[in-house]
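User: quick one, sequence for these tokens?
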């Protein structure tokens, strides 16, 4: 207990509880605001899910109307006909309740509709609006809602406390959250080993078991504290921002071997917390094990995260590993809760806790607290075997001293290996994604062709039935009744409208069959021509979609997007380039002019239209355009941006350096030079390794691959403009090779600039994590301010403007800010000058009497 309280006090004084609380509250607030702002999206999502019902209700009503003319004397048929009419009426009431957002009345309206559907099925009818057991699942859920007087709630954007809490848990009580907890809490023991403060504990009458268990319980207590903050925030934030209290009796469906069932949401959340704490216990026991056998923080964090995500990935990939004896199996929180048969017995939740206890015992057995250096360990030899340097250049001596430290500590070497392993892992994911898209293309095309053929067959049957009905009404000879007139109008409209649809679908089938054959033969010209034809149909043909840029409920695709998509394929044909896939069935590009109802939908569109390929050049392109470079930038700042901070703290090696004939500014400048040199070297090595691994695995790539470049209005409106001009603006394409060279140069300059900032920040702090967070805050804040439209006329002078290198190299930032001075060359100059300014600030401050040396 004493060691546990000791660890809690340490975390309290390091403000780790405060950091966890702030992060938790911020995450919950962001998720709630997302849900609150997305309330309008619920209607679009709901009506999209109701579309199959609309078609089924119409189909049933039409079938009864067509037969009524012959069976009006059949009482059983007329009862079924009345039920079909009631079904249509109740469906309209359900839609109306949804449209008016009368969530309290939705379960009642849906239940009335479901009862008519069930009656229709009991009388021998078919209803295909629900998949498999969907009808009975909806019936049972609404039955529970009515029994407890509960309103309808959306499962993605709810703002009532219980369902909102479930959404929060899915986001931040999850596997990625475990990774964040490891980063924030997982280096405590190894930090004490690095700083030798663990020797103090070894002088106390404390067993290894108590020492490790105290640390283990302290880390788990921090996680429990974070969960408690999340729980309280899920109550408080909806209360302050206009949410709803809701009910913890709200039903959550679970799948059983012989059907389905519902559990209240409070039990669902309780099981989620138990599984999460079990996974956290297991993971932090691994942290202790790695802290016992490894010597530096970076290695401990890397191998722990590798074990976490690698274990989850392998478990999900191989069925043999999906067993209750595998602790990683319990990290599938949602699956285990919603499919209880996978677990068998709820008591098995204890298994991760048992694994954690076992690993803690093993760690205690392996742990050896040493009072002196290891026996038999050789002393470190003098640098260059004791040779004395004759140079009088003190800056060179300081730089050589810094280089020796990095070399002998081995952190840079291990760190570089970790980066290369991350690059290999990232490439493996890209290979998997690329192969998956290629493998899905042919089945997807065949499914699409089959779908259109089924639509054609169904429409032809409807047309045939409508023509027969018209013919029968014509033969009747008597004056048609009002009902018969209505039937005649509907039948005629179906013959006319569906006839055009059949003709269009037949053309689609023919084009897709031709495209599929060309794809299998590697005839990329024909594939791209087929894509162009389809893009033009979506763009120009009003029967495909309403292409007005801002009028559709879901937002709008710009004229710019369609034109750029067409011209991109024309470029591919001209340069004989292979097709590259994305998650969309149609190979659109994406642009800054596309408008959607929310940033979330915009983000989904941008993600789905992002192209994926596994060549060397495309791997680097993906690195620069998916914000993956944030990971490399953060790791480099963490390793090489500590600066003076690494000499302060518990070791205070800076005090020793002061005994040498060196100025503080000279020490700072030496650290800066070596850090920048290592930063540039690791960055270039990482980029070259990406190209190499892609080339060896697949091929070098297409230097001529088209990259969309946005032209400024002043350029697009000029008389000699040679690009393409859409309604929203002009554009042309540049080679991928040129784009990567410019982006790579800006990225390298940006990394060096951020290192310079972090080195200056290190003069003011004694903790490396504080330096990293402050540097990121300065960088993000500077970028947000610099890309503000309020300062658009002067932002070309700010180095922060150029931190998103890809948006500079393709002209996007210049167009968005309407500043023609923003370019790659101006960015390189601004970043270079900014780096020199921060270095000068560091030199001047290090010379001042305000600088703290410890």
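Assistant:
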């Amino acid at each position: 207990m004493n060691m546990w309280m000791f660890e809690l006090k340490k975390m309290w004084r390091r403000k780790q509880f405060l950091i966890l609380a702030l992060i938790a509250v911020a995450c919950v607030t962001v998720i709630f605001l997302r849900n609150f702002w997305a309330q309008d999206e619920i209607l679009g999502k709901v009506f999209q899910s109701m579309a199959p019902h609309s078609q089924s209700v119409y189909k049933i009503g039409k079938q009864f109307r067509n037969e009524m003319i012959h069976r009006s004397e059949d009482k059983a048929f007329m009862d079924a006909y009345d039920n079909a009419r009631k079904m249509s009426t109740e469906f309209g009431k359900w839609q109306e309740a949804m449209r008016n957002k009368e969530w309290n009345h939705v379960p009642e309206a849906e239940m009335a509709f479901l009862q008519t559907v069930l009656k229709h099925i009991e009388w021998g009818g078919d209803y295909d609006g629900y998949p498999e057991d969907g009808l009975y699942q909806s019936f049972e859920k609404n039955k529970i809602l009515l029994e407890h007087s509960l309103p309808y709630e959306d499962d993605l954007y709810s703002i009532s406390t219980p369902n909102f809490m479930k959404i929060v848990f899915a986001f931040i009580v999850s596997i990625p959250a475990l990774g964040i907890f490891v980063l924030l809490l997982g280096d405590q023991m190894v930090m004490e080993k690095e700083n030798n403060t663990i020797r103090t504990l070894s002088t106390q009458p404390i067993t290894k078991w108590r020492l490790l268990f105290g640390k283990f319980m302290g880390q788990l207590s921090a996680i429990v504290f974070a969960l408690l903050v999340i729980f309280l925030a899920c109550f408080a934030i909806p209360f302050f921002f206009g949410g709803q209290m809701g009910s913890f009796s709200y039903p959550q469906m679970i799948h059983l071997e012989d059907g389905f069932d519902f559990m209240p949401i409070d039990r669902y959340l309780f099981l989620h917390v138990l599984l999460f704490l079990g996974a956290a216990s297991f993971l932090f026991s691994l942290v202790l094990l790695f802290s016992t056998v490894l010597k530096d923080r970076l290695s401990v964090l890397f191998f722990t995260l590798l074990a976490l995500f690698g274990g989850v990935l392998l478990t999900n990939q191989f069925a043999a590993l999906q067993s209750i004896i595998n602790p990683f199996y319990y990290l599938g929180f949602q699956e285990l809760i919603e499919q209880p048969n996978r677990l068998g017995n709820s008591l098995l939740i204890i298994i991760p806790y048992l694994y954690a206890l076992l690993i803690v015992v093993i760690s205690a057995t392996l742990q050896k607290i040493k009072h002196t250096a290891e026996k038999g360990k050789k002393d470190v030899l003098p640098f260059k075997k004791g040779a004395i340097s004759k140079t009088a250049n003190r800056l060179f001596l300081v730089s050589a001293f810094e280089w020796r430290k990095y070399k002998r500590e081995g952190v840079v070497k291990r760190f570089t290996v970790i980066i290369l392993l991350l690059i290999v892992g990232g490439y493996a994911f890209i290979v998997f994604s690329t192969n998956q898209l290629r493998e899905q293309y042919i089945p997807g095309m065949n499914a699409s062709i089959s779908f259109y053929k089924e639509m054609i067959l169904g429409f032809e049957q409807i047309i045939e039935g409508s023509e027969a009905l018209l013919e029968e009404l014509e033969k009747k000879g008597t004056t048609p009744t009002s009902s018969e007139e209505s039937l005649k109008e509907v039948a005629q409209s179906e013959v006319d409208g569906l006839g055009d649809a059949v003709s269009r679908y037949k053309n689609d089938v023919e084009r897709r069959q031709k495209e599929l054959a060309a794809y299998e033969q590697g005839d990329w010209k024909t594939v791209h021509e087929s894509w162009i034809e389809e893009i033009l149909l979506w763009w120009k043909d009003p029967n495909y979609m309403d292409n007005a840029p801002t009028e559709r409920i879901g937002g709008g695709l710009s004229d710019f997007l369609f034109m750029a998509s067409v011209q991109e394929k024309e470029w591919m044909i001209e340069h004989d380039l292979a097709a590259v896939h994305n998650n969309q069935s149609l190979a659109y590009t994406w642009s800054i002019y596309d408008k959607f109802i929310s940033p979330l939908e915009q983000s989904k569109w941008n993600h789905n239209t992002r192209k994926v390929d596994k060549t060397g050049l495309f791997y680097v392109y993906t690195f620069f355009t998916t914000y993956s470079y944030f990971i490399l930038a953060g790791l480099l700042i963490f390793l090489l941006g500590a600066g003076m901070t690494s000499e302060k703290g518990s070791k205070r090696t800076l005090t020793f350096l002061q005994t040498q004939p060196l100025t503080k500014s000279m020490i700072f400048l030496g650290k800066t030079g070596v850090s920048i040199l290592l930063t540039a070297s690791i960055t270039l090595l990482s980029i070259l390794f990406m190209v190499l691994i892609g080339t060896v695995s697949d091929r070098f790539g297409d230097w001529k691959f088209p990259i969309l470049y946005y032209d400024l209005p002043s350029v697009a409106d000029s008389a000699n403009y040679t690009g393409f001009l859409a309604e929203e603006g002009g554009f042309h394409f540049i080679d991928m090779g040129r784009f990567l060279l410019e982006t790579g140069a800006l990225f390298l300059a940006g990394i060096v600039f951020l290192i310079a900032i972090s080195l200056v920040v290190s003069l003011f702090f004694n903790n490396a994590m504080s330096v990293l967070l402050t540097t990121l805050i300065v960088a993000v804040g500077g970028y947000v301010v610099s890309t503000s439209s309020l300062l658009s006329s002067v932002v070309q002078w700010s180095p922060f403007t150029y931190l998103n290198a890809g948006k500079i190299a393709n002209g996007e930032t210049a167009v968005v800010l309407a500043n023609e001075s923003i370019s790659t060359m101006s960015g390189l100059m601004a970043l270079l000058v900014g780096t020199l300014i921060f270095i000068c600030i560091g030199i001047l401050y290090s010379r001042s009497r305000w600088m703290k040396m410890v």
